[in-house]
Amino acid sequence: MPFDYKKEYKEFYLPKAVPQLVSLPPMQYLAVRGKGDPNEEGGVYQQAIGLLYGVAYTLKMCRKAGYEIDGYFDYVVPPLEGFWYQEGADGVDFAHKDAFCWISVIRVPDFVTRADFDWAVAEATRKKKQDFSAVEFLTVDEGFCVQMLHIGAYDDEPASVARMDAFLAQNNCVNDFSAARMHHEIYLSDPRKTPPEKRKTVLRHPVRKL
After folding, report:
1. Which of 11, 54, 62, 147 would be 67's cystine partner, CB 3.0–4.6 Å?
2. Which residues in 58-199 belong to E strands, given as ranges?
3. CA distance linking residue 141 with residue 91, whole number of Å
């Protein structure tokens, strides 16, 4: 059975639909940075997702290409995630999507090295005849956070964020946004197949104790 990060690390990927505090270890990702409305048809956000999956599946299928990664084991490609911010804002303003800055990411196993990443970018470029140079190899150390499972449309996320904020106030904590600590979402549902009211998204904010 392929290793499934969602099942093996349920505390990070399958939280309850109520706020909870969690401490996260450093994780490494494939990443693409951009700016603008993620809902724009054929826009830079959707293009970024295509680049991420191209490199992610090149790494997963490396052995079929004759490339061996030390310590490799078969795994399920983890879900798409995103770090979101708006310049000059504390957190995010969901009403102004055109002002979103984002880092779209897909987690990669710890056995993937920068040399393996460089090979995958070159291999995806060669095989798909497409430029994958925008993809980065990124390590993120989120540390202490509040998170919850949001069920519903993306536009309804502010209600869940308000619950997270109220929970922090009750637990002697506050949000701790910075250039390195951002609003984080993990997309557990495929928006092409799941109606808005049934979509599942992990919402996560960096916090600190008072």
Report:
1. 62
2. 80-85, 101-107, 136-140, 143-151, 173-175, 183-187
3. 18
Kind plus residue range of the DSSP H or E element containing 192: none
pTM of the entire predicted model: 0.95
CA distances from 191 to 52, 129, 179, 187 (A): 17, 27, 28, 9
Query: How high is the pLDDT of residue 41?
Result: 84
Judging by DSSP bridges, how do beta strands 27-35 and 136-140 pair with one another?
A: antiparallel
Chain segment 68-99, per-residue pLDDT in tens: 999 999 999 999 999 999 987 776 777 778 88
Return the amino acid letter for 161.
V
Q: What are the beta bridge partners of residue 184?
A: 83, 204
Mean per-residue pLDDT, 45-59? 97
d(CA 32, CA 52): 7
Q: Please list, in sequence order, all residues whose beta carbon lies within 8 angstroms of the beta carbon of residue 107, skipping any fewer than 6 positions away.
A: 5, 27, 28, 29, 78, 81
The whole-angstrom separation of Cα 41 and Cα 46 is 8
Q: Give me 92's structure tokens.
A: 């995010």
d(C-alpha 117, C-alpha 72), whole Å? 13
Using alpha carbons, select from 148, 149, 144 the residue that is nearest to residue 167: 148
